[in-house]
Structure formats: structure tokens, C-alpha cells
Specification:
Layout lengths: L1 H20 L4 H46 L6 H15 L4
Helix pairs in contact: 2-3
Amino acid sequence: MAALKEYNVRKHYETEHASKYGTLQGQMREDKVREFKKRLAGQQNLLKKATTEADISVHANYLVSKILANRVKPFSDGEMVKECLEAVADVAFPEK
């Protein structure tokens, strides 16, 4: 199975990218690989950050829902809204 994947990757490189990157040798090739790895790491960090923010948002929504259920009061109740916002702030900004 691994040999088949290696063959597919090699074939793809030779048919799609060899004309553009096949001439790179030595230090130029290493620099290009480093640049690609840096771009990949940036994209991965962006996706991780988005996932973390989504998780925080869901957690905060659950906290607000719990407070609403426990109080059995309308959302317009001022003190309850303040309590909800404090709960959200504790989850979204734990360092502050």
C-alpha cells in the first residue's frame, strides 16, 4: 500500500510540478522546501485557531443556556444578563 502511494505522489510531481521545481538544486531546493513548510505551518495554525475559537463559542453558549434554565427567567432580566456575560468572559478570556 505504501509503495502505491509513493508511486502516485512521484507520478503527480513528475507530471504537474517537475517543470517548475525540477531545476532547483542544492541550497535553492532546500530554501524552497523550507518556504513550503513555513507556509504549511501557517495554514495549520490558522485552522487550529479557528477550531479553538469555535470550541470556546460552543462552551460559552452552553454556559448561558444553563444559567437561563436554572433561573427560569426571561433573558431581559438585567442581573441574569450580567451573570451570563461574566460566564462567557470567563470561558472566552480566561487570562483576563
